[in-house]
Every structure is written in structure tokens, then in C-alpha cells.
UniProtKB/TrEMBL annotation:
Pfam families: LprI
Protein's UniProt name: Lysozyme inhibitor LprI-like N-terminal domain-containing protein
Coiled coil: none
Lysozyme inhibitor LprI-like N-terminal domain residues: 21-102
Entries under InterPro entries matching the protein: LprI-like_N (IPR009739)
Superkingdom classification of source: Bacteria
Length: 112
């Protein structure tokens, strides 16, 4: 199975490989995206204009990277039935990791 489906903290580990697993990862990726957007939205209001501009540029590039990276992982499966699950698991894991990364890098700015 795909590596992203086996990462610690995977919200769908207890679900067997089938369409419900795909739906679980799709839902989990939506939750991860919502959490990221919520933190990013709070964060951006606490940054000075220069740091805000830098983070916005980095975030735009990160979204491009995430999408290309997860598309590449999907393509490893050559259109097989695991592809959609793999892609959703990748998006969930990478997005969740990005939120944690932003909290480590910028979280202290919220305490100013």
C-alpha cells in the first residue's frame, strides 16, 4: 500500500481497503485542509506586510508542490483502483504535515 496510507496519525488506519477507505481519506483531507486554512487565516493577520507576502508566496508554491507530489504518487498506480485512495491519503498527510510545520515555524507570532 501507499506510504502515505501508513504514516503515523493516519485517520483511516482502522478501515479496510475499499471504497469506504477512499471516502475516509477524502473526508480526512477536507478536514486537514480546513484546519490548515483556519490556522493560516489566523497567522496571516499577525504578520507584518513583508512576512505576510513571503508566507503567501511560499504557501502558493507549497500548494503547487502538494498537488504535483500527490498526482505523481497517484500515477505510480497507473489508473488502478487504489489510485484515488492513494491520492486522497497523500493530500491528507501532506496537508496535515504542513499545518504542523507552520505551527512550528510561525506559531510563536500568534503570542505577540
Amino acid at each position: 500500500m501507499a506510504q502515505h496510507m501508513n504514516v503515523p496519525g493516519n485517520p483511516c488506519q482502522s478501515i479496510g481497503p475499499n471504497s469506504s477507505e477512499t471516502q475516509c481519506f477524502i473526508t480526512a483531507s477536507q478536514i486537514a485542509d480546513r484546519d490548515l486554512n483556519s490556522f493560516y487565516g489566523k497567522l496571516i493577520t499577525h504578520l507584518d506586510p513583508e512576512n505576510r507576502k513571503n508566507l503567501q508566496a511560499a504557501q502558493r508554491l507549497w500548494v503547487q508542490f502538494r498537488d504535483a507530489n500527490c498526482r505523481a504518487e497517484y500515477d505510480l498506480y497507473g489508473g488502478a483502483s487504489a489510485g484515488p485512495t492513494v491520492r486522497a491519503a497523500c493530500i491528507e498527510a501532506v496537508t496535515r504535515h504542513r499545518t504542523a510545520e507552520l505551527k512550528i515555524m510561525y506559531g510563536w507570532t500568534l503570542d505577540k
